[in-house]
Design brief:
single chain; about 575 residues; mainly alpha; MetI-like fold; two-stranded antiparallel ribbon; 23 helices; about 5% strand; globular
Length: about 575
């Protein structure tokens, strides 16, 4: 036994040295980050926080995981692991999760690298196949490289050939009449803005509107999309000729136009169904996203609207430098854009966390209480709760906002009862306002979760609870071992979508507080930021008013997308319902 203790002590000493090494590495990273960030105006404490977040858990994990929490005593060929208490197991899992972050980032980087590598290899294979087809193809296929659909027409596939040829004619006509102009103007976003000229007849100045930056950017992006579609269609045309050659060489007959039309409602019916939705996604989702991203690299705002006032131009990464800069541009007592963004982002994450999990667990408890045997008038209780869903939020939230005002119903009732001497600052104090919106959101969100949880709870086999009662499990043990795991497994993806949805929950915040109370320290930032503003409500404020800084709103939109995408990817990959789907089966 003394040898085992000596071996354990040696292991502990080695792991303590590793812990100190990790801590020293963290200090070195702090100094490096501090020297780098100081050049762009970032305080030293920011780099210290970053180093602490990265290496602090790692150092603590090395100590707890290797030294105290997981001691191993070795005797010969046998190893005995000492059991951990409940709190140590919790810390062990949290530490293990933190230590797995570098591996997750490494896997993410490898995934991106493999995707880029695969895309480059795929393009290379396509180019090689195009050259090979031209070299070994017949004269009909070679003519199709210039005149799309020629090979199909020459081989008797009239419908396919006409469609390819029509697409090429439309593309060439568009590029000559309009597309070439939009592409040529895209680098400058316009050369001549609105001009004024004196009209001697009417004795006044007349404004002449010339280039339109907004249209140039929009139609330029549309033209690029059209070019990509043409290249893809041209490639399909080449592949169709290649396939037709092989079919004819094998002695088989090519499909006619009637066969093609028949296949659209038979074996190719899935493509027919997906054609319209895919077009809608490209036009109404992908195109606006690309346009919004490009706006972030311009100076598009109220004074540079691109047509009536002034043209807007490309500014590169200046808008991102402004949003992420720690330099204070206002007077004393104000904070930088980066500090404002960090404050709003932190409150957005806190709001999303509480708005998601308070509704989730309280809604589940309400559903369990209503479903419990012996409860009467179950339909009535469910109906009363669902009424909050039936009433439009525009009405209910504005009414609740007036109820919690200084002269509202809540304060008047409390003062009449003698419980308070002066009105409570529900919407005037930042802490009160944030707590109040979370509580009001519970009132709104519980009915949704109650309905979802009711359907799931009814599907849990009653035999599980009966077996647990026989084994002596109390109500809390039945909840933690049966109900909660079952609910989390089924509703895991819903929790993720609910969290991301609450990060963009515009209605509750804007209708209740409008972002108030105003954050005076953020007065130098656009949009009059308030303490209860989420990123989405701040984005809305930036785009309204006289300034209408659309370029900053686009930057905020991109950063919101990055944050939401990272959280979604990480959480989605660790959800039990995704990783262990077979366990539930």
């Amino acid at each position: 036994m003394s040898e085992n203790k000596q071996a354990a002590a040696q292991q502990g000493l080695k792991r303590m040295l590793v812990t100190l090494g990790v801590a020293a590495l963290g200090c070195l990273v702090w100094l490096i980050l501090g020297s780098i960030f100081s050049g762009i105006g970032v305080p030293m404490w920011v780099s210290g926080v970053i180093a602490l977040l990265i290496f602090g858990p790692a150092a603590a994990g090395c100590f707890l995981l290797w030294n105290e929490m997981y001691p191993i005593y070795q005797s010969g060929d046998e190893k005995r692991v000492m059991p951990l208490s409940r709190w140590k197991k919790t810390i062990y899992k949290l530490t293990k999760g933190v230590l797995s972050v570098p591996a997750m980032l490494k896997n993410l980087g490898l995934t991106v690298w493999n995707a880029v590598k695969g895309a480059v290899c795929a393009v290379g294979r396509e180019c090689k196949d195009i050259v090979t087809t031209f070299v070994h193809g017949d004269w009909k296929t070679k003519c199709s490289y210039v005149v799309m659909g020629f090979g199909n027409l020459a081989r008797g596939q009239i419908l396919r050939g006409l469609l390819f040829l029509l697409f090429e004619v439309v593309f060439i006509g568009y590029m000559i009449l309009a597309g070439g102009y939009w592409l040529s103007m895209l680098p400058s976003l316009g050369k001549v803005g609105p001009t004024e000229a004196y009209d001697e007849i009417f004795d006044t100045y007349v404004t002449t509107y010339n280039d339109n930056s907004f249209k140039i950017l929009l139609y330029g992006v549309l033209t690029i999309f059209f070019i990509i579609a043409f290249i893809y269609t041209w490639r399909v045309n080449i592949r169709q000729n290649q396939i037709a050659e092989k079919i004819l060489k094998s002695g088989k007959k090519l499909r006619s136009g009637k066969d093609d039309l028949r296949s659209l409602v038979d074996d190719q019916f899935h493509k027919t169904l997906l054609a319209l939705p895919l077009t809608g996604i490209l036009v109404f989702t992908v195109l606006p996203i690309v346009f919004m991203i490009l706006v972030a690299f311009t100076n598009y705002d109220g004074t540079h609207d691109g047509y009536y006032n002034n043209l807007f131009t490309w500014v590169g990464l200046d808008n991102f430098n402004t949003m992420l800069s720690w330099k204070v541009t206002g007077g004393a007592g104000t904070q930088s854009y980066a500090a404002t963004f960090g404050e709003v982002l932190s409150w957005t994450l806190i709001w999303a966390f509480f708005a998601t999990f308070t509704n989730y667990f309280l809604g589940m408890f309400v559903a369990m209480a209503i479903n419990k045997k012996g409860i009467r008038l179950k339909k009535l209780w469910r109906t009363v709760l669902v009424l909050t869903i039936a009433i439009p939020q525009f009405i209910s939230l504005l009414y609740v906002s007036k109820m919690f005002a200084k002269n509202g119903l809540i304060n008047l009732a409390l003062m009449n009862l003698g419980w308070i001497d002066k009105a409570l600052p529900f919407w005037e104090d930042p802490t009160w306002a944030r707590i109040t919106v979370i509580i009001v959101n519970i009132w709104i969100g519980i009915p949704y979760l109650m309905l979802i949880a009711t359907g799931i709870l009814m599907n849990i086999p009653a035999d599980l609870y009966e077996s647990a009662k026989i084994d002596g499990a109390n109500g809390w043990q039945q909840y933690t071992k049966i109900t909660l795991p079952y609910m989390l497994f089924i509703t895991g993806p819903y929790l993720l979508t609910s969290f991301t949805g609450n990060m963009n929950n515009f209605n509750v915040i804007y209708l209740l507080t409008g972002g108030a109370p105003t954050n005076a320290a953020a007065s130098s930032a656009a949009g009059s930021v308030g303490y209860t503003d989420l990123l989405v409500t701040w984005l809305f404020k930036i785009t309204t008013g006289a300034e209408s800084q659309y370029y900053l709103a686009s930057v905020v939109g991109i950063l919101v997308f990055v944050v939401v995408a990272l959280i979604s990817l990480i959480v989605y990959n660790v959800l039990p319902s995704i990783k262990n789907e077979e366990d539930f089966q």
